[in-house]
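Quick illustration, no need to memorize.
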Amino acid sequence: MDARELRFAVEELQYAYVHCIDADRLEQWPDFFTDPCLYEVTTRENLDQGLSVGVIYCDSKGMLRDRVVALREANIYGPHRYRHMISAVRVTGTEGNVVQAETNYAVYRTMLDPINYGSSELYSVGSYQDTIIIEQGMTRFREKKVLVDTARILSLLVTPL
């Protein structure tokens, strides 16, 4: 792939990823990853201080699937909907079929419970630091590290970012 095709492939993967989450098709979310994989949510503050504590850490597709099952069947949280805005998609490196990419994101959350129905708020802002594998025309995340710009998370982080 030339640089333009590569960037387009990375952008399409990012767009499909956020549309899957925003459409609440979370059972399909693990399909965006290789196996093994890494999905980690951590704060910029922890990263800057060299702390390895993350908010979420999943290192296999099985763990991603378990997270979706827990979200659907075990966790108790207010019903909500996400809307992702992504920008500044950059390919930062390539080696063979492995691509490094960085993307800014913002997630708005709209509450769907009777008391707060329709209220929207800026829920999370940060960047994706991704390692992407391209094989047989398919792009998948080997690693998706979500770096949240603030250590303050307004409520239970249940839905993937």
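The first strand starts at residue 33 and ends at 43.
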